[in-house]
Amino acid sequence: MISITHNELVMVAYKYCLKNFSVGVAFREFKSITDEIPDVIAFGAWNHSVLIECKASRSDFLSDKKKPFRSEPKLGMGKQRFYCCPDNLIKIDELPDGWGLIYVNQNKKARLIYSPYRGNIEERDLGFLERNTIAEMSILYSAVRRLALRGYIEEIYEKP
C-alpha cells in the first residue's frame, strides 16, 4: 500500500476533476452553511455536478458509510459521485450503488478505475437524480459571496 496523505489525495482529485469531468469550477474542502464538507465538489453546465470523496485509509472509508448523506443518497451532493483513494484501498464491489472509483498511484497520478457514468457528456442524465441541490447552491453562493466581499465580483463582467 502506498503512503499518501488525505490532503495530497484532495489536491490530486481536484486537478483530475477539473481536467476530466466536464466541469468549469471546482472547490476543495469548501466550508459553507451545509453539514457536508465535500473533499472536492465541481460544477458544470446543465445542472452537472461531481463529488469526489478522498479516503486515505480503510477505516476512513468504512466510517464514511455512517454519514447521513451516504446512508440516504438523496441528502448528498453530486449528481456524479466518486471515491478517490490510493491504489487498491477500495475495491469496485465495495462501492455504494451509483459511485465511481479513482485510484492514485505512488507518483500521485490519478486514473479512473470505475465509472457508472461512462464519462460521455450525453450521459449526464445518469447519476443521482435526487440530490441535495440546496447544499450545492449554498456552496456556489458562499463562493460568490466571498468574492463579492473581497471586491472581486466586478471581475466577472466583460470589459469593453
3D structure, described in words:
There is one protein chain. This protein is of the alpha/beta class and 160 residues long. It has one domain: Restriction Endonuclease (3-Layer(aba) Sandwich). The chain is built from four helices and six strands, in the order H-E-E-E-H-H-E-E-E-H. The chain has a six-stranded mixed sheet, covered by helices on one side.
Helix and strand arrangement:
Elements: H1 6-20, E1 25-28, E2 40-44, E3 48-54, H2 58-64, H3 68-71, E4 80-86, E5 99-104, E6 110-114, H4 133-149
Parallel strand pairs: 3-4, 4-5
Antiparallel strand pairs: 1-2, 2-3, 5-6
Write a concise keyword list for the protein shown above:
160 residues; alpha/beta; Restriction Endonuclease; six-stranded mixed β-sheet; 4 helices; 6 strands; globular
